[in-house]
Design goal:
293 residues; two-stranded antiparallel sheet; mainly alpha; 2 domains; single chain
Length: 293
């Protein structure tokens, strides 16, 4: 399969009654309310690649001035809109300052480029542009060929980890992850998170994106981490925290591994702070320039 065929496209399935919702109606009636709603939609679209989670990078969260820059919104509007959205529960702020639009998980859908191409081909066939010109025998052969291509496509996507959650994330995989988590002896789960909860959706997404083996390996990484297990600081990992996209990526990349040389972590922290300060200054300058135009 070509590299382009493995690319995944995301979109939000926005309900036609979105602007009739009580929370949206209440916001629109506020001063600058329509700007708040537009800003909220921009945040959701910015977060689709991470299923609702929004950060500038793994190490740097978005600030108000940075959000103003990337969404082309006045920084005062950003500040006021965030306050309203957080109060209404439409935006959550995690401990690491990640912004999370929980509604995105319910509205999100995706497919690979190859799947899109195959779907468009089927739609064209069904419209009569091709199939109507074929004899009954050829039409049957065409349908068989399409089914075979679809099966090959699914096998290729399964190997590359790009098949849909429903097709790849089996119930037994979810149970294996939960059973492994329970052996950590920290936060015990009362039941298996189902696909209607944020934790359940994010767990299934992690299995889809990384494979069951990598998710189980991540739990072993947690087991070996003094920081995540709460052995060195007043912090202990929870399951919800574990399955969030940025947190999970940091775990598998070794961010929370035990460090034999603390001075390296300190130096890295200083470098990250310098980078953050530089970006923050750039964002503030960009926002100020936008306001004066």
């Amino acid at each position: 399969m070509a590299a382009r065929d493995k690319e995944r496209y995301y979109w939000l399935k926005l309900d036609r009654g979105f602007f009739k919702r009580h929370d949206i109606t209440v916001i629109e009636d506020m001063p600058n309310g329509k700007d708040y709603v537009l800003f909220y939609l921009k945040l959701m679209l910015e977060s689709v690649d991470h299923e609702g989670a929004l950060r500038f990078s793994d190490t740097i969260p978005y600030s108000e001035t940075m959000l103003a820059s990337v969404t082309h919104t006045n920084v005062d509007i950003v500040r006021s809109a965030l306050k309203v959205l957080i109060e209404l529960g439409m935006v959550e702020v995690f401990d690491d300052k990640t912004l999370f639009m929980k509604e995105v998980a319910k509205l999100l859908d995706s497919e690979t480029y190859a799947a899109r191409r195959q779907r468009e081909l089927r739609n064209k066939d069904n419209s009569g542009d091709i199939v109507a010109q074929l004899s009954p025998v050829c039409r049957q052969e065409k349908e068989i060929e399409t089914e075979q291509e679809s099966e090959k496509e699914q096998e290729s996507e399964k190997e590359s980890g790009t098949l849909s959650v429903e097709s790849v994330c089996r119930p037994e995989d979810v149970r294996r992850v939960v059973d492994a988590w329970q052996t950590l002896g920290i936060q015990k789960l009362r039941k298996i998170p189902d696909s209607t909860t944020n934790a359940g959706k994010m767990l299934r997404a992690r299995i889809r994106d990384y494979g069951i083996g990598s998710v189980l390996e991540a739990i072993e990484i947690v087991r070996a981490s003094d920081f995540l297990m709460g052995r060195v600081k007043d912090f202990q990992i929870t399951f919800d925290w574990f399955v969030r996209p940025n947190n999970f990526l940091n775990i598998v990349n070794g961010k929370y591994d035990n460090r034999d040389k603390p001075e390296q972590t300190t130096r890295h922290g200083r470098e990250m702070q310098q980078t953050y300060n530089t970006i923050e200054r750039w964002a503030e300058q960009h926002a100020n320039d936008s306001e004066t135009v």
